[in-house]
Amino acid sequence: MGSESLRVGLVKVGLELDERVLERLEHFTELLLEWNRVHNLTGARDRREIEANILDSLVPLSFVSKPDSLLDVGTGAGFPGLVLAAAWPEIPTVLCEPLKKRASFLRIAALEMGLERVEVARKRVEDLQHEPFGLISSRAVTDTGLLLELTRHLSDERTRYLFYKGTRVEEEIAELPETLKAEIIERPPRRYLYLQPAA
Ligand SMILES: C[S@@+](CC[C@H](N)C(=O)[O-])C[C@H]1O[C@@H](n2cnc3c(N)ncnc32)[C@H](O)[C@@H]1O
User: Fold this and answer.
1) Domains of the chain as residue ranges with CATH
2) Which terminus of the chain faces fewer neighbouring Cβ atoms within 10 Å, N or C?
């Protein structure tokens, strides 16, 4: 059984997920609560805070079409990359996280959630070698310009980007490359920056 409060939150943002996904997310919540007691993986300390982060991670499902591959930069304790992978289990996904404790948690959580297409890369994204990704996501790691620069070798002309931002997003996109068009989707205080090929 998935969590009732998460279910209610999803309805409020107009998302309906199937039961299997909700069960995976419930499993993730339990694991994170357990690990966080000992390992201090995230500031989200209780179920309510973890579910708020899950919801924040999932909102883009309403405007981002399913990619053929996903890279999440600096996944930390799982947001948003592992949560997106729970909703898109068939998509090959790389969660890039250099910190040992967090990377270990991500590996175990992905395994326990039955997410066979998830790979955890315990390294900085600038050191990751991989073919270009369809979608690159990131939350609370660094600014847009630097994210684009650090992931240039992991992208091509088809790559889309989904960055979870706040108030300063306009300044960050003032100097975007002409090859990308920007869309900002608001769910205060969150502002999702969705970058797609301009052509
Ligand atoms: C503030 S935490 C955010 C974690 C998660 N994305 C979230 O929103 O809860 C930033 C994370 O980015 C990781 N990080 C920092 N620099 C990185 C880099 N160059 N490549 C990949 N991950 C990086 C850190 O280890 C840390 O776990």
Assistant:
1) 60-197 (3.40.50.150)
2) C
